[in-house]
Amino acid sequence: MRFAKTTQMLLLLQGLVLLEVVNAQTGFTSLVCGAPSDYISQSDGISWTSDTAFAPPISKTFSLPSNSSLRTLRSFPPDASRPSGRSCYSILVPFGLSLVRATFTYGNYDTLNKPPVFGVSIGATMFSTINFNTQDPWVEEMILNAAEVQTFCLISMDGIPVISLLEFRPLPPGAYNHASSSLGVALKKIYRIDCGSEAMKNTRYPDDNYDRIWNSDQYYLDASTSSTHSITHDLNTSAVADAAPMTVLQSNRFNFRNQSLSYSLPLAKPNGKYLMNTYFSELHGAVGPTFKLSVNEAVLMTVGGLPPLSVSEFTVTQAASWWWNISLLPVSGAPLINALEIYETVQLQHISNKKDARALNLIKLSFNAQNILLDWSLGSDPCFPVPWRGISCDTTGIVTSLDLSRSQLSGDVAGLFQDFTRLEYLNVSGNNLFGRIPDLKGRFQSLKVLDLSDNQLTGTLDGFATLNLHYLNIANNQFSGPIPEKFDQPGLVLITLGNPCIQYATNPCPSVTDHKPQPVGISARRSGHHSRSLVVGVVSGTLAALLVIAAAGIICCHRYKLQRELMDASEEDIVSVKGAPSESGAFKGVLSRVQETASCLRVHVWRFTQGSFIRFTVKGPTHELGAKAHFSARRGGWTRTSAPWR
User: Fold this and answer.
1) Domains parsed from the chain with CATH numbers
2) Which end of the chain is less congested by CB atoms within 10 angstroms, N or C?
3) What pLDDT is stored for residue 645 in this prediction?
4) How far apart are CA 469 and CA 447, in angstroms?
């Protein structure tokens, strides 16, 4: 409940409309999709609300031909901002047991004669696949315990998803107790049959207070000599919370000749599990007959001694087959039935971790909307049935990875550091993030990989000191100051290129007052069996760039002096070489004459004019390089890292 209220607040802050549609039907939400305005149905008096205020972004509306049973539809064409193909409605509905019904039609509205196929999910659970090649229009109905903010999503599979009507109906307490959130089960309607109806018509609101739609049994009845009987006075339904409406219960079907009464019903999933509600009422004012109920010749129960003028409900569960042949077999007297319902039981998918879902919703609200976050539908489940773009989750719904690299994010980086349960990977490189790293003490203890490169972040690295990282990339930002001692830990890869000056313990940064452009390069430090340091240099294309790089090198840690030492080094001074071609012994003649020695480290990467690379370590005096740098120059001390820097 608390999380749902928080989600409502987030939705309101974002500017999304959250309305509990108020009309003549208390608690009803009746959306007509694609309609320009509201209207009231003349046939049943239901007040329909245009879905304009609820519809997901990036959609189109269409009017249907006058001979169609539906007026309009809304379609959701593919869009780069919605790569998951998920389009969601987020509706504020009464909390508790609800009937959710959606009506879809294709009707060749686009004149392409290409009916789409798409999925339908509620919350985290995929309920069905809509395929107009087998049926058009298509109605899906589910009974489940609804959240306060209910999300209904269409998921593209083949073609463009469409929808015409979306309805939410509250159900009374105690009804359909098999649809229990505690049991993790919802009910998907397969059949709801009015047994004994003489008219080929459907019964719904206002005859049914909960707007369940009951179909005449004449569509499903096996050929027989059955008869119907009806009365006009009310029956006692106090013992049945989910009883069929009075107009349905006031008629029943029976067989005078004491023969069996049968219905043949095809089922879509032969491997599913189904639940059947049956309603019986003796309308003659006497004790009712006794008969057996069987499915596919397997007797499931015996019904007898029905109280007169009252309603009894029997529920059975049964494994599926392609067909259910439901038979009422006489024992004494004529078997009878008033109504029956068949539901497929659907196991609800575990929802995402509430703490992580809230963190993601806060991230969406913290940054501008014209980016990857358009694919994040607030109120929908981040992990199931299809994860939001850039998100990976484990099977329990905990977010483990968040990749928002190059996603046009713009804002204060502090908005990213929300409270996740077990986030292991975070990549927000290549955006327009600014600001300082907040104090992360007590948070992100599972984070192993953090990539903040290519942003506009400032300040020191102290905010990272409490993290247990294996890989940290802060390249091309505006960080400065010392590297925390904790970063000198085994297995850590640190990439610091393109920052004003990152200070290693043995090589403090000089005081630099001017802000001339720094050479582009990568300073990476990796601790393992030995403490190692890596510096990557990149070649500049023009003489002017060479002069700028040389000037910057003089300012930072006497790089020019180190370069001369390197150029004068003999092959005996080169301790290790990685990546060189066979003629590496003659490296001086073929290497580009530009190098980067950021942070005064003595492991170098040079680029061949042909484009290949060479890594080598040069000996240096301890008093210039520091003990750790000198130690890294020991023979065999360098091994190439496989860190995934870009």
Assistant:
1) 2-180 (2.60.120.430), 187-347 (2.60.120.260), 529-639 (no CATH)
2) N
3) 27
4) 6
